[in-house]
Amino acid sequence: MAMTFHVDVVSAEEEIFSGSVEMLFAPGEMGDLGIMARHSPLLTSLKPGELRLQLPNGEDQYIYVSGGMLEVQPHIVTVLSDTAVRAKDIDEAAAMEAKEKAEAALKDNKGEIDFALAESQLAEAVAQLHMLKKLKNSTHR
Amino acid sequence: MAVGKEIRTQIKSIQNTQKITRAMEMVAASKMRKAQSRMQASKPYAAKMRNVIAHLAHAHPEYKHPYLADRDVKKVGYILISSDRGLCGGLNTNLFKAAIASLRENDEKGYKADVCVIGSKGESFMKRIGANIVSTASHLGDAPGVSDLIGSVKVMLDAYDKGEIDRLYLVNNDFVNTMIQSPQVSQLLPITVAEPEVEMKHHWDYLYEPEAKVVLDKLMMRYIESLVYQGVVENIACEQAARMVAMKSASDNAGDIIDDLKLVYNKARQAAITQEISEIVAGAAAV
Predict the structure, then answer these.
(1) Minimal C-alpha gap between A136 and chain B (Å)
(2) C-alpha count within 13 angstroms, C-beta hemisphere, residue B23
(3) Residues on chain B touching A96 (C-beta within 8 angstroms)
(4) Lowest-confidence pick of A48-57, B35-44, B186-195
(5) Does the distance separating the beta carbons of A40 and B135 come in below 8 Å?
(6) Considering only alpha carbons, which residue of chain A is nearest residue B251?
(7) Which of B41, B48, B89 sits opposite A13 (nearest CB)?
(8) pLDDT in tens, A73-125
(9) Residue of A nearest to B35 (CA)
(10) CB of A34 within 8 A of CB of B72?
(11) What is this structure's pTM?
(12) What interface predicted TM-score (ipTM) does this complex get?
């Protein structure tokens, strides 16, 4: 029987796979990779593509990854999968959008934080909360 | 019977309010459970990355990634995560208090601050007090994706790369349990790496494909994003928990008021009956 090793496939949003695997095929940035147990430590980025896991029971499991990172250690392999398709221009566009939203939100803003205003508003809110608590206690005679 | 008509309408209207708060409480409870499991699911990713980064930081003492290097502070950045909606008790207020305390501390040292806000409550608060908001993201819904945050985080990371900010903080609520959510301010950049738990016996390093720097850049960016994402998901769990508690106490309060009003109503009714009887008796006696 071939040696197995542990594979974790995780994304920022969820854990996708965790278990023993005989061999792992991954779409590496510089070409496809086949990883078996006792591979030397490796860190690489992944292209969007298919991850193939050869399970000990002879079955294959396929997982689609839209890019990410692959970390290999002799007995444990971690795939840090991206949840979204990443490309420089897409990221750039998203950043621009976030900036524009902020600019639209504050026209004629001086960029100086008015601490007095902030504190007075917070104090007011806190006072209201205190008041509510008191009111609640008083009804509980 | 004409007695206490207005009291009865008042009781009715409070009962209606109570129905709404009850419903909101139950909705918040079920959303909280979902948010909590999402929060748990996002943890392994960041934990794995932290391990890799900790290893990298120690395996490469000579190469310092800018995200790992401490530098002189001239300007700081904040990522503030708040909720989109209100009616969740003092959650946002407490968070803003913590943020303002930290902002003021930096202001006294002469550091200016750029702010990135996530959530419309934080947006309007920061706008009111005149903070310099550089990017925003709001109305992400109950199940935000990492892709919703990439843009606004990138703005801050770019600013850090260009040296416009020298330190980046994350302000969000920490989910302790259903009853307790505490605001926290944590430093995102430069990354503070914990010492490895076991001293490495022999020096080993990864093979990098294509090369160390490119891989590290990608990794660092994703790490920060995942931390922010985690903060957002955690904040949603906090929001729902706080709302559940707030709505529960609102329902209880409505119940108390209804009880009080019922007492007043019954007293009035009894008084009216007594009066009626005594009038009849007095009338009979007169005849």
Answers:
(1) 7
(2) 6
(3) 151
(4) B186-195
(5) no
(6) A136
(7) B41
(8) 888 899 998 876 666 777 777 778 888 877 776 665 655 667 777 777 788 88
(9) A13
(10) no
(11) 0.84
(12) 0.77
Residue of A42, A113, A135 with shortest CB distance to B207 = A42
Task: Report the alpha-carbon distance of residue B50 to residue B223 in Å, rounded.
Answer: 8
Q: How many CA atoms lie within 13 A of A129 on its CB side?
A: 15
With the CA atoms of B136, B141, B144 and B147 taken in that order, what torsion angle do they form, in degrees rounded to the nearest 10? -50
Q: Who among B45, B134, B260 is closest to A12 (CB)?
A: B45
> Which amino acid appears at position B149 of this protein?
L
Write down the number of H helices and E strands in chain A.
2, 7
Whole-angstrom Cα distance, residue B105 to residue B93? 18
Is the omega angle on the peptide bond into residue A41 within 30 degrees of 0, that is, cis?
Answer: no
Chain B residues with CB-CB distance to A13 below 8 A: 38, 41-42, 45, 145-146, 229
Q: How far B124 CA sits from the closest chain A CA (Å)? A: 8
Q: Which residue has the tokens 């795939």?
A: A79
For A114, which residue in chain B has the nearest alpha carbon?
Answer: B129
Complete domains list, chain A, with CATH: 5-87 (2.60.15.10), 90-139 (1.20.5)
d(CA B72, CA B193): 18
Q: Which of A70, A6, A36, A41 is nearest to B204 (CA)?
A: A41
